[in-house]
Amino acid sequence: MPASDRPNVLLITADHMRRDALGCNGNWFVDTPNLDSLAARGVTFANSYTPNPICVPARAAITTGNYPHVATDSKTNSGRIGEDQIKIAEHFADAGYRSMAIGKLHYVPYAPPDEPRLLHGFEHAELCEEGRILARFDPTGEMRGLEDYHDWLHEQGWGGYERAHAIGNNDVRAAASPLPEELHEESWVATRTIANLEAHLSENPQQPFFTWASFTKPHAPYDPPRPWDAMYDPREVPPPIGNFEMMSDRDPMYRHWPVAYGWDRMSPEAIQNSRAHYFGMVSFQDHNIGRIINWLEEAGHLDNTIIVYSCDHGDLLGDFRCFFKCNMFEGSVGVPLIFAGPGVTAQEPVEALAGLQDILPTVAELTGTPLPQDVMGESLAPVLDGSEDRVRDIYISQSLESPNQRYMVRTLRWKYVYHELGGVEELYDRMEDPRELANRAAERPEVLAELRGALLGWVRDNGDKAMLDESGDLVVSDESLAECDGFQDGRMGWRWY
Fold this sequence. Notes:
Layout: E1 8-15, H1 33-40, E2 43-49, H2 55-64, H3 68-71, H4 88-94, E3 98-103, E4 124-127, H5 132-137, H6 148-155, H7 185-203, E5 209-218, H8 257-260, H9 268-298, E6 305-311, H10 330-333, E7 338-340, E8 350-355, H11 359-366, H12 381-384, E9 395-399, E10 406-410, E11 414-419, E12 425-429, H13 445-461
Parallel strand pairs: 1-5, 1-6, 2-8, 3-4, 3-5
Antiparallel strand pairs: 2-7, 6-7, 9-10, 10-11, 11-12
Helix pairs in contact: 7-9
């Protein structure tokens, strides 16, 4: 197929977006009309997951179609994508597409001043890394050319005000952004995406585009601009799931983190306020996604554009009195996954197990651009056109390094979680207990054994040697996490520029 006849691809991603935060995924409380409309004319997955609920490895899986231990040789934020990997932007550029990225790529290591950025094949990129590059090379925010959004704010006379509320990237206390709505980073991602699409299509209307619009929210700080900060009354927001006492037989790390990050000092009302601001960010992002989709429709390119919406991972958002990701609770590991456009038949939400590593092989098949080598992800095209109801029977997710590695095995009914630390196991009956209120590991030994065996087989077959002990069984560590009393310098991601 000539490149000019191929559909465009618009990949839209969020950061920290729970699957259940969207109306199309069953949320009755939050207003997400644009994403709901996208799902209505395409397919949304009811059982979609991240292969790793941490930012950098999840994005590496999107980029390469492989699990992080293969793509970056790391299951944490430290890994660089290997040169032997297919890279999504490079793949589409080689197929004749114009490749562009706007927003947060989180490709590490970050380049120092005056050195080329690490873009893994994007021909054009404008970055908003939420101060991460600045924190590394210019913590006072005086340089230009490191983060495009930061530079643009200075041009608008608002330089540095994105953090004037003094809340950091990993601080879950909430406040309205000091910035006007049109200058917020979510607005900037939409504005610059539209501007780049408009420029490309006016200059090269026959060349298809692959564009990644990567929104940075609703990642903390939970700081929607006014009036979105007051869209939801915290007294009316549905409360989080469970309580901290339920963690006694579960994730060892998350028994420790509430003290390490100060969540134990938050009142129930403070948690409700954070949740209200988070959902305000969700609706604000939906509004900006609507701006992009409306522009595509008005420009006459919507019908020939495959749109994919997803996220790197979720956020516990107060569930079990915890926040963040890294764990295998549904709020952390479950992500939205929506496809619409050419090759996608509108359906009710599908139950098929799917994940971020499936995006590259799926859009490659839908665009008629075969991958040059195999990847670990599966093409979801047979599910998207309605010819098949699934592409796999189990879904695997991984997270962190030794001594705190953890894995999830998900079937349509069961979720099994294994923790290297202490060999702790969790088992949830997703049919009877979708909120994961009870760990059934002690009650269903036969299911536990079956899924433990499935995990062991997968780890062996897919080369994750760090998960195996000398005898070839799942590794168990008896190291204890150091007690942490109060905040540690830099732990909250505070940046003062």
